[in-house]
Amino acid sequence: MNSFALPRLISLLLVCLTVPTLLFAAETAAPVVVQQTLLQKLNMPTIYILVACSMLIVWLVTDGYARTAEKQVMPIPALEALRTLFRAGDYHGTFEYCRANPGLLTNVVGAGLRHASEGKTATEDAVITAVMGENARFQNKIAYLSVIGVIAPMIGLVGTVLGMIEAFAAMGQAGAADPSKLSGAIGKVLYATAGGLVVAIPAFVFYYLLRNRTAQAVHHLQETVAELFRRFPYEDLAAVEFAGVQPCAARPKWLQPAAPEGSAVAGVTDPGGRVIRPETSDQASATPTTTIPVAS
Asked: Quick one: the chain helix, strand, coil %, rounded to 5?
């Protein structure tokens, strides 16, 4: 019995000494660090702004690709209708068709017909101006992609700076700087900078892609309109005015016939509004002739 009691006593003493040691070690152990998920780390105001910018990028890219598609720039039905009207020489019908069916192609063709009576040069200038106007409409929307690409990294950088200020302020209030906590706080706020770059890079890529796509679509539009106006009879439409188009400019006022007043002889008015009366031969010999300069 004594031989078995001694080992039991030693085991009991070891247990009594080990249990308090383990309890003390558990109390003095470092606290368990709770790992945050990625969504919790991204819970910052600047991230919300960047998410809104990314949604705007998706809408701008989708709308840009849809608007610059060939079937939108030059619809087949409209192109065939214009070709048929041009071959038939029905330019009044063409102008009415362009007014009734607004679009990229019809707007440019309508602008050319509106100035057809002024000659080839005026028509070409009107077509170029209309094409530039349609191109500006595309470029105005595409430019927002470039703006987002510029400001997105700035927004991310602002979030990072504000987060670091908050982290250093918290460490200062604690009284002692723990490098592990400080590095964790800095690592969290750097997600804002990374988010800004993730938004900016696709914005710039799609900006240049859409700009080139728009330039190609506009160039194709200009070529198609030039083909429609090839061998256009400008001489036959020199005195033709289309319905709804009234010229705004008139002859200079001093070159217009003045309305007769009583027995006064109608003449020509000068730039000051005075009537120049024709002189008789006696008056011409008695008084010297005065030439009124007319501004060219």
From this structure: 70, 0, 25
Exposure b/e, 35-70, CB count within 10 A at least 16 = b = eeeeeebbebebbebbeebbebbeebbeebeebbee
* CB contact at 8 A, 120 and 234: yes
Q: How far apart are CA 193 and CA 47, in angstroms?
A: 9
Residues 63-100 pLDDT 10s? 999 999 988 888 999 999 999 999 999 998 999 999 99
125 Cβ contact partners less than 8 Å away, ≥ 6 residues apart:
115
pLDDT in tens, 251-260: 777 777 765 5
Listed by start position, the domains of the chain span: 38-237
Token representation of residue 261: 């007043």
First to last CA, the chain: 139
Q: Which residues contact 270 (CB under 8 A, 6 or more apart)?
A: 254, 276, 292, 294
Distance of CA 183 to the CA centre of its chain: 41
Give the highest mean pLDDT range of 88-97, 160-169, 184-193: 88-97
Pairing of strands 268-269, 275-276: antiparallel
Instruction: Give SS3 for 257.
Output: strand
Q: How many CB atoms lie within 10 A of CB 4?
A: 8
**Residues 68, 71, 72, 75, CA torsion sign:** positive
